[in-house]
């Protein structure tokens, strides 16, 4: 229930209570009977307001529960998606690292070959 609906219902109940009170006050009846009618209408209005208050509380509680469940579900989905993306990033980094290791080994091997060739060239001179 939206806030406007609750305000509208409260305004209608308040208007009804005021209208009933004014009607009773202008009705030709004894003071004792008038007070009884006012008290009766006040209790009736109070019960209606309490009923509406409990109904509104229950609806808000239900909405809060549903909203919390949706949030938890979305959070779980997001964390799951992020976990997969993190795995993808780690795999890409591992592939890049292996590529760099291969290139480094190649460069080291080429450096050793060049040193040997240099030593062989010096020795044969």
TrEMBL record:
Q: Which UniProt keywords apply?
A: Membrane, Transmembrane, Transmembrane helix
| Chain ranges passing through the membrane | 6-27
Which SUPFAM superfamilies is this protein grouped with?
Apolipoprotein A-I
Origin superkingdom: Bacteria
Q: Among its keywords, does the record have Transmembrane helix?
A: yes
Q: PANTHER family in the record, alphabetically?
A: GENERAL STRESS PROTEIN, SLL0268 PROTEIN
The name under which this protein is listed is Gas vesicle protein
Please report the organism this UniProt entry assigns to the protein. Sinomicrobium oceani
């Amino acid at each position: 229930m939206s806030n406007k609906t609750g305000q509208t219902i409260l305004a209608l109940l308040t208007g009804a209570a005021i209208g009933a009170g004014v009607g009773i006050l202008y009705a030709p009846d004894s003071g004792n009977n008038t007070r009884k009618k006012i008290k009766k209408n006040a209790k009736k209005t109070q019960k209606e307001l309490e009923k509406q208050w409990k109904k509104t509380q229950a609806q808000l509680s239900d909405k809060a529960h549903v909203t919390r469940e949706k949030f938890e579900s979305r959070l779980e989905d997001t964390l799951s998606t992020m976990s997969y993306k993190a795995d993808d990033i780690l795999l890409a980094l591992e592939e890049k690292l292996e590529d760099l290791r291969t290139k480094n080994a190649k460069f080291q091997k080429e450096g050793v070959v060049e040193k040997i060739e240099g030593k062989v060239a010096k020795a044969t001179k």
